[in-house]
Amino acid sequence: MQNASAAAPYFVDFEDVWLAYNDELLARNQFAVEAIDLKVRSGEFIAIVGPSGCGKSTFMKLATGLRKPSKGKIRIDGQPVTGPLKISGMAFQAPSLLPWRTTLDNVLLPLEIVEPYRSQFKARKSEFEARAIKLLQSVGLHGYERKYPWELSGGMQQRASICRALIHEPKMLLLDEPFGALDAFTREELWCILRDLWTERRFNVILVTHDLRESVFLADTVYVMTKGPGRFDVRRQIDLPRPRDLEITYTPEFTDIVHDLRGHIGAMRKQGAVINQ
Amino acid sequence: MNKKQLERWSPLILMTAIVVIWQAICSIFNVSEFIFPSPARIWEQTVEYKGVIAQHAWRTFWVTMAGFGLAIVVGVLLGFLIGSSRLAYAAVYPLMTAFNALPKAAFVPILVVWFGIGIGPAILTAFLISFFPIMVNIATGLATLEPELEDVLRVLGAKRWDVLVKVGLPRSMPYFYGSLKVAITLAFVGTTVSEMTAANEGIGYLLISAGSSLQMGLAFSGLLVVGIMAMAMYELFSFIEKHTTAWAHRGSQNH
């Protein structure tokens, strides 16, 4: 990395990380992901793209500390990762909101679990609620705080899910194909919401997706992951100026980058089987 | 009458039809009341013996509720245990399935030896027959938790206990209320069966003594009363279910 912050310790630092899901697979040298080297600056927005089943979700499990690597070292925020990290928030393709809680109570859930909020939850509840309402407003969910998730549309549920991932002000946001199940218009709307939240708060984002336009529009750096075993093959810095407007996705520069990334994925696929595309 | 109203009143209409046909058959073929009493005769005897029936019915009712209460406590605790621990699930579940296959009426003679004639065997039979569905439903609710939901909390450093209390238990509530509806009707079966051989009071006892003195009308009123009590309790739990776990019934026709 050529930039000025290269000397400072990285926020996310994967050093030759390998993972096999169990000892048997390890003995047979079958890894879900292998030889992952990843350095992410503080506040950087990275996206990981790749075909389905290439180990993206496995990578997420490593980054959150839900799984420990079989080989290699992971350091996040200067600390070796030994268990689940409380400094991260997570959102998935399915909004997975709890249907018996209102939208507001769903967003408050992390504060009932993470310290130091947990022990102050009863005493500072109204303050936390105000914070959650403000966050919901910022993603356009004003007036839906007391509604139940099943009374919201898919896009609204996903926004609430992102609010839940951000309410405890994590330093790192992990998104696992968060917009995959939405229609194209809603998806672009949520890109902008995520862009604005990130611009305002500058947390680290790791976005896993198979939408190349999404990755190029949002991220500072895009990594292309290959399949079986999962590896990071291509690293591509996106130098498009910020703040980025949706219009940028129709410029030739943007399309060229997408096309280039598409070329890498196409090349990988052809190694396996000949598909005319 | 529109379709919705028809649907609402359909159970009542069907029941009236059955009673009318039943009465017609008894009157036309002049069936002896010692073989098969007519609805009119059953009603006559119900009114005649209402004091006695009420007394026995009350006994059956509270005995059933005691057994049912015990079933809730034990069912929830066991369900919680086997739903939250894979080891406990593996160890307990096969044994419980085997136990559930045993006819609970067969326990009555043993319970009589241990507790004597009276409320002991009746409460315990009601308990034995009704705790199983409660346990299974709680366990299912806990064990079928979506892994993503669990990950959302575990990423935050939630302990197993947090996941159980915040997600597992609320999520298994609809299963729990659903099981109560099944379990309460079973509990009435248990009490009645037990009272038939091991009590001097209760609807079961009334059925046996009415039968042995050929008071068929009275025997049928006994059945009627158990049926009404079970149905009333079923409706009560159904009402509670709808009002406490409405989120689980969204999209049903009630909306």
How is this structure best described in words?
The complex is a heterodimer of chains A (277) and B (255). With 277 residues, chain A is of the alpha/beta class. Helices cover 35% and strands 21% of the residues of chain A. Chain A is built from 9 helices and 10 strands. In chain A, α8 (212-218) crosses α9. The longest helix of chain A has 21 residues, at 252-272. Chain B is mainly alpha-helical and 255 residues long. Chain B has a single domain (44-246), classed as MetI-like (MetI-like fold). Helix content of chain B is 81%, strand content 0%. Chain B is built from 10 helices and no strands. Classes of the chains: A alpha/beta (277), B mainly alpha (255). The interface between A and B is medium-sized, with 26 and 22 residues.
Main sheet characteristics of chain B = none
Of all chain pairs, the largest interface belongs to: A-B, 26 and 22 residues
Q: What is the oligomer described by this structure?
A: heterodimer
> Which CATH top level class of chain B fits?
Mainly Alpha
What is the number of helices of chain A? Answer: 9
Number of helices of chain B: 10
Portion of residues in beta strands of chain A equals 15-25%
Low-confidence parts of chain A: 1-7
Topology:
The complex is a heterodimer of chains A (277) and B (255).
Chain A: E1 12-19, H1 23-27, E2 33-40, E3 45-49, H2 56-64, E4 71-76, E5 79-80, E6 88-91, H3 103-108, H4 117-120, H5 125-138, H6 154-166, E7 172-176, H7 184-201, E8 204-209, H8 212-218, E9 221-226, E10 231-237, H9 252-272
Parallel strand pairs in A: 3-8, 3-9, 6-7, 7-8
Antiparallel strand pairs in A: 1-2, 1-4, 4-5, 9-10
Chain B: H1 3-28, H2 39-48, H3 50-84, H4 86-101, H5 108-115, H6 119-143, H7 147-154, H8 160-198, H9 203-212, H10 216-244
Helix pairs in contact in B: 2-10, 3-4, 3-6, 3-8, 3-9, 3-10, 5-6, 6-8, 7-8, 8-9, 8-10, 9-10
Which labels suit this protein?
heterodimer, A: about 280 residues, alpha/beta, 6-stranded mixed sheet, 9 helices, B: about 260 residues, mainly alpha, MetI-like fold
